[in-house]
Automatic annotation (TrEMBL):
MF-aspect GO terms: DNA binding; tyrosine-based site-specific recombinase activity
Any one Pfam family match given in the protein's UniProt record, by short name: Phage_int_SAM_1
Organism (species): Candidatus Coprosoma intestinipullorum
Keywords: Cell cycle, Cell division, Chromosome partition, Cytoplasm, DNA integration, DNA recombination, DNA-binding
InterPro entries assigned to the protein according to its UniProt record, in alphabetical order: CB, DNA_brk_join_enz, Integrase-like_cat_sf, Integrase_catalytic, Integrase_recombinase_N, Integrase_SAM-like_N, Recomb_XerD, Tyrosine_recombinase_XerC/XerD
Active-site residues, record numbering mapped to chain: R145, K169, H240, R243, H266, Y275
Location, primary (coarse class): cytoplasm
Identification of the protein by name: Tyrosine recombinase XerC
Gene (name only): xerD
Subcellular compartments: Cytoplasm
Function: Site-specific tyrosine recombinase, which acts by catalyzing the cutting and rejoining of the recombining DNA molecules. The XerC-XerD complex is essential to convert dimers of the bacterial chromosome into monomers to permit their segregation at cell division. It also contributes to the segregational stability of plasmids.
Subunit structure: Forms a cyclic heterotetrameric complex composed of two molecules of XerC and two molecules of XerD.
SUPFAM superfamilies: DNA breaking-rejoining enzymes (SSF56349)
Cited CDD domains: INT_XerDC_C
Length: 295
């Protein structure tokens, strides 16, 4: 039976994440789903749960999930109960001594520099081709998250100064320089092709989909995969492949980790350090392949 008290707590926590923490809609939705699932399984008010109740829930009801999903759920519950404790709705935090399972660190997939050049070499015939060229050049030039890319407006890009203004996670603002390639592609798209994409009146979003509306994450990834197939690029893709490639190639050519951290908008440098593992792994592979005694 669904608890009205729990539903109220979930709604209040949702407002807290939205207005105080300024989390994205996707993140808030994930938190809410985790709490709704807990409410369905455990027949108690959240404020009365003890450590043993939550441990039993994790062991019995989450056991079939992968470590990443379990960790995410535990992270949600930790945030939720920390919020309840701060707001004096519980005396003891039942999540305080519960730790997440260790996740194996997965290295992000990146494209080689030759694959990037191949991907960006788009045959420019239609307005959509010029849009795609501008999107990909901008992504590789700046290392944007896909969510940051699709939320850009015309006002956020200054090709004369070669800068783009980004509002990242937690609405944190950062300014990123742009390459000449990106500026040229953006100017071509904005000046001569973007207006042709409107179908139902104008809007201020920089990148428009085939219906003249704001580009979606799914739409961007569909374009990326289609171009990769056309170019016969075999590397596994994710929506952030260009972002990962941007960081890896900068590191490979001598950029320092702190600069890459700022460009990517990472609040913690440990998130940036994963790219050193990629370059180290490739260095070891090259050593084994090309050193006379390495084979």
């Amino acid at each position: 039976m669904k608890s009205e008290i729990n539903q109220t707590l979930i709604d209040e926590f949702e407002s807290y994440l939205m207005f105080e923490k300024k989390y994205s809609k996707n993140t808030i939705s994930s938190y809410k789903e985790d709490l709704i699932k807990l409410d369905k399984v455990i027949k108690k008010d959240f404020t009365k749960l003890e450590k043993k109740d939550i441990q039993k829930y994790i062991q019995d009801d989450l056991k079939d999930l992968n470590p990443s999903s379990i960790s995410r759920t535990i992270s949600t519950l930790k945030s939720f109960y920390k919020y309840l404790k701060i707001n004096n709705q519980i005396k003891i935090n039942p999540m305080q001594a519960i730790s997440s399972p260790k996740k194996a660190q997965k290295l992000p997939k990146v494209l080689s520099e030759d694959e990037i050049e191949n991907l960006l070499d788009i045959n420019l015939k239609t307005d959509y081709d010029f849009r795609n060229k501008a999107m990909l050049e901008l992504m590789y030039s700046s290392g944007l998250r896909v969510s940051e890319l699709i939320n850009l407006t015309l006002n956020d890009v200054d090709t004369k100064s070669a800068l783009v203004k980004i509002f990242g996670k937690g609405s944190k603002e950062r300014i990123i320089p742009l390459t000449e390639y990106a500026c040229e592609a953006l100017d071509n798209y904005i000046l001569y092709h973007r207006a042709n994409l409107f179908k139902h009146g104008e809007n201020n979003y920089l990148f428009l989909n085939n219906h003249g509306e704001k580009m979606t994450r799914q739409g961007f990834f569909k374009i990326l995969k289609k171009l990769a197939q056309e170019k016969n690029i075999k590397t596994d893709f994710s929506p952030h492949t260009l972002r990962h490639s941007f960081a890896t190639h900068l590191l490979k050519h001598g950029a320092d980790l702190r600069s890459i951290q700022e460009l990517l908008g990472h609040s913690d440098i440990s998130s940036t350090q994963i790219y050193t593992h990629i370059t180290n792994e490739r260095l070891q592979n090259n050593y084994k392949e090309f050193h006379p005694h390495g084979k």
